[in-house]
Amino acid sequence: MSANTIGAMFKVTSFGESHGRCVGTIIEGCPAGLRISEDMVQKELERRRTDQSSFLTQRKEEDKVEIVSGIFNGFTTGSPICMIVWNKDIDSSTYEKITFTPRPGHADFTAYTKYGGFNDYRGGGRFSGRITASFVMAGVVAKKMLALLSIEILAYTVEIAGVKAKPKTLKEIKDNVESNSVRCADLTAAQRMVEAINKARDEGDSVGGVVEGVALNVPVGLGEPVFDTLEGELAKAIFAIPAVKAVEFGSGFKVVGMRGSENNDAFIVEGGKVITKSNNSGGILGGISNGMPIVCRIAFKPTPSILKSQSTIDLIRMKPVTLKIRGRHDSCIVPRAVPVVESMIAIVLADHAIRTGLIPRVVKGVNLDR
Amino acid sequence: MSANTIGAMFKVTSFGESHGRCVGTIIEGCPAGLRISEDMVQKELERRRTDQSSFLTQRKEEDKVEIVSGIFNGFTTGSPICMIVWNKDIDSSTYEKITFTPRPGHADFTAYTKYGGFNDYRGGGRFSGRITASFVMAGVVAKKMLALLSIEILAYTVEIAGVKAKPKTLKEIKDNVESNSVRCADLTAAQRMVEAINKARDEGDSVGGVVEGVALNVPVGLGEPVFDTLEGELAKAIFAIPAVKAVEFGSGFKVVGMRGSENNDAFIVEGGKVITKSNNSGGILGGISNGMPIVCRIAFKPTPSILKSQSTIDLIRMKPVTLKIRGRHDSCIVPRAVPVVESMIAIVLADHAIRTGLIPRVVKGVNLDR
Amino acid sequence: MSANTIGAMFKVTSFGESHGRCVGTIIEGCPAGLRISEDMVQKELERRRTDQSSFLTQRKEEDKVEIVSGIFNGFTTGSPICMIVWNKDIDSSTYEKITFTPRPGHADFTAYTKYGGFNDYRGGGRFSGRITASFVMAGVVAKKMLALLSIEILAYTVEIAGVKAKPKTLKEIKDNVESNSVRCADLTAAQRMVEAINKARDEGDSVGGVVEGVALNVPVGLGEPVFDTLEGELAKAIFAIPAVKAVEFGSGFKVVGMRGSENNDAFIVEGGKVITKSNNSGGILGGISNGMPIVCRIAFKPTPSILKSQSTIDLIRMKPVTLKIRGRHDSCIVPRAVPVVESMIAIVLADHAIRTGLIPRVVKGVNLDR
Amino acid sequence: MSANTIGAMFKVTSFGESHGRCVGTIIEGCPAGLRISEDMVQKELERRRTDQSSFLTQRKEEDKVEIVSGIFNGFTTGSPICMIVWNKDIDSSTYEKITFTPRPGHADFTAYTKYGGFNDYRGGGRFSGRITASFVMAGVVAKKMLALLSIEILAYTVEIAGVKAKPKTLKEIKDNVESNSVRCADLTAAQRMVEAINKARDEGDSVGGVVEGVALNVPVGLGEPVFDTLEGELAKAIFAIPAVKAVEFGSGFKVVGMRGSENNDAFIVEGGKVITKSNNSGGILGGISNGMPIVCRIAFKPTPSILKSQSTIDLIRMKPVTLKIRGRHDSCIVPRAVPVVESMIAIVLADHAIRTGLIPRVVKGVNLDR
């Protein structure tokens, strides 16, 4: 049972609750000799923070990371790395009221039933989006490892509330994504997305969207068929992000309307390297990376926490009740999900890079500096 | 590294190659005392056979299963069950020609690179659709276990080559799916799908499609957040089926255009049981089954093996060449994928039923009959 | 790679270093609804503390446990339980000198080589006996779970420095073990053990010994052949305790001189229950518990940290040097190992109790008290 | 639940029963490009066969191996290797009588209880020594992998029925072990061991013994603390061999009477390499190989199947009965266990060699020969 752990060689274990003491992560399998600092991790944690713009929740999460094991003199030691973000500024009072009246679209009902009511329900507890902080902390280490192989991970918003971004060049993506609050490379679309989110929020409602994730410079050979295909491993990791309802690779659902002769990517040689002319496969053939960019798209549902009245039941009396959620909630989770998507992709690729033998157990020669 | 094994408690290991000696499966974690016979398994294997209709490949696979361990006097023993289908009627000669000229859309290039050319390339070897016979054999045991909990698994074609099926009732689905060669419950659409496949085949081309999978009577509580969510586990298992490029649950990609107030499924009480009014969640909330039908849709790409000429390269000379594939190939894999999708869903749910403590280690009391 | 995790269903992950920030543990797979408090854990941590008697190390470890996740309102939630003991009162200065001159009998050389010198060497780092605090914390939860099945775990010293204890009754063991500093049920032998330890210490030397571990009221059926035999699983867990060099079950090495007719334990019926007349098997047949007490004996080597001068090498210059270890060290680790042995046995049995389906996922009915 | 699988990266799965259709093994994680033939495997299987001498069982096991997957053109492909030995010459009639009268010292009672009577009891079924054929087949692949690193594995008998062998040089061991039916390097002791076994057999009884296992040329760094120590992993693997009751490393139980100053192995430099002057540690420090020979000793109990009358019970009537076992049984299992011990050591070291990054995913460059 690896419910709270992901990865075969690069293993990430998540722990903690939204309104408990902390959210934390244990990272195993990282080679010794990798330089990791709290600052690096802090920077990524900031990217998923809540106060970037008005439509995100108002809770002022401090999210200050503490590395409590596995790093010595600034380098990984080969031992498990434990990172913790302590919870502060917590107001659980609004949640007390919904204990026995499960919020539609949330895990309240399933968690209550599965754990016999012993689950920490405050703020969604273990099912809160806040748990993704544990993914992001691990993602920093994964990205650092992948940098040894020059692998780069990007994610960005391509659709929110029906507003679709136009395709952009890699340069535009890199330049624009962090420049706007919805993390979209198409700045015109970004503006309309913001408006759509604001409109939904003003109506006490919420909207969903699509994030695209890309991995560049991935060597040929990552992925372990028949069950640990790269698509399967990425999909599993990505579905751990709350609110994800669909994952597609390359042409995705579009393949359904294509002929084989259209969808097959012809092999060509370019600069002495085998590449494919098109990339309908999304960089994966037979579950194994083929050297082209890995491309996936992920559908996020509209945030289930809305201010509009909703129908639910009282679990004790088994009677219908009307639920009115108060408190602080994102009207659209998509922009904050962007760094989380990057983290999940990085974690899976880091694991497979080790499994494929591309990462040594010690990053550089013997440390004479100790 | 569990590359060839899936499942935490109900574990399925696949082995074998398309044109090697056999395709086989090892099934572990099954309780003792479950009645399993070769006939049961044979029946399911027939469903994925090739000779059901003219547009499927002409290889007469006999697919006769042999159970070589784990069953004694007709019952499971609690020990690993090994089932084998021996390969017969194999003509690998056409494959010899494509050894160093990878077929577009296939795993030839990635497998060659990953395994240094030592992979068994005949008929796609380990990457062949034939490997799904090992999934189907395990699926039979999984379905039998799930029957203890009255869980039922269905799959059926909902789109091929752009032809979409109309939604049908559960009764229509059960009545119609096995009545036509494309396994579609909408008989009018089915006819048009057949025509579209035939047209593509006549043009030396192929088409893709969508399979919908459903699990009925699933109890509340299956799924193990944060990483072993039911969506994530199902997606990973389903991506092990060759040609899958996308998986969605419930409203799937449609959530992107929905408001939270639309997409949230209201809880109601019906017959003393908590259910939801709509099922946009696809039966899963917070990664855990909520008691509603689990619904997923899976996109299959058009079969990459087409008779049309294609551009590829000679891996030794690193020069472009034109490839002409001969031999026997499905023009549309979708109908044959239907029982495989059922098997993958069954395998994942069986695993989680055990993990949740719903399946005893021995199915019934002590066997006094030995 | 589960290097820092043990268990298939009841999973224990250890992290932390001797002189780093903390030593911690993550406990997964524990059912929801189990009452666990910091006090319970604290009590067991005290048992492995250092200042019980003069021959144990003088470092005043405070070992104050903090439970930072997985417990809510005093009960387990079904989510991972993280417990941490923060390191205090640390003086690493003496260790700085031995960085490149590995201490004989310690992991200094192997860790240095394996991790390229990036390992945290202070106080033995990850290889310190202090890491067993993470085992003991998990052991408390395991014992609590086993109490649901009335399983009881005991351990006690049976030999130190050649002084062997006489066999004692269960009552004597329970009465006497915690009454003396060497945790031996034979009080006469205990006195002589203390003297032997003191003598060794006065000579700047150290001694080893044997701990016997017992599990009572274990139901028939724990253990999962062929590889996860109860002996194999217990042995693996026990070898994680530093200084263990041998493990035997039941008659152990004595079986070598016995005939089959002597060693076979005859089955008899007593009080309507099948038991065996003797217990040479140590409660395990075919890798599965047979209902008799599980009995194992574990050899601990003399503490490698001794004050006497020792020959070693300078790893940089590759030249012989004489090493003189200073600092605080136990002259005999055996008494402090007793609660650790109990913990390892408890962890393994708890895991197998879950695997055998004897522990529900929720300890009692739905919690209406929240 | 990895009950039938051992290893994290080099994974061995055992299946089959003593009197079922076959005994088999699946080997995963082996690099592509390793030359493996049925002949190699056959040779090792012969070493554990039964008809080497009069005191071993008379069943003429043919043990003809078939490799049914994972090998192509004589080389490993990187896919799972399945090897099968079909059972022949089976006479289960004598076992029918003891179905409900469990044999003392056997797994009959525990298996019956655990699996509710559904276990295949014929010939011990899954608990038979015959299952070790699946270990030996995997051991051949493991040894072949270890040969890439020049690691060599040896095992030999050092004690039977109280007769102890004198220590012998490595050359004497290699020369003598296969020259006598008890696989003992001390030929004088070997003769007395044979006599002791014959005497026991003539009296309808059986005897136990000790096998010593050694691994030579093991590089520094194998083993993954804190839980996957080399001792722990080896012990777990070795306890999978039926009849093992104790495992010790290096000085083993002797450490109990030693001082730290005696037991610590001084580091010295020899030929530019760090070694230890003595080898009390058995080649393992802190759970990690230190470059010295790995040495372990394993106690085997006397074969529980004896011809003498024994007391047991009728499980249905819960009444005492006298049991008289007939059929073919070894009077001493030790000599046949020797190649099995070698196999278990090889399997564990192969796994850790991969985990440590010492084995590439492809043994040599790209195969141009296909």
Instruction: Return the CATH architecture of chain A.
Output: 4-Layer Sandwich
DSSP summary, beta strand count of chain A = 18
CATH superfamily label of chain A: Chorismate synthase AroC
Structural class determined from secondary elements of chain A: alpha+beta
Strand content of chain A: 15-25%
Largest sheet of chain A: 5 strands, antiparallel
Can you put this structure into words, describing what you see?
4 copies of one chain form a homotetramer. With 370 residues, chain A is an alpha+beta fold. Chain A has a single domain, classed as Chorismate synthase, AroC fold, CATH 3.60.150. In chain A, 26% of the residues lie in helices and 23% in strands. In chain A, strands 1-2-3-7-4 form a 5-stranded antiparallel beta sheet, covered by helices on one side. A 5-stranded antiparallel beta sheet of chain A has the order 9-8-10-16-11. Chain A has a two-stranded antiparallel ribbon with strand order 5-6. The two termini of chain A are 39 Å apart. Chains in contact: A-B, A-C, A-D, B-C, B-D, C-D. Strand 11 of chain C pairs antiparallel with strand 11 (244-249) of chain D, so a sheet runs across the interface.
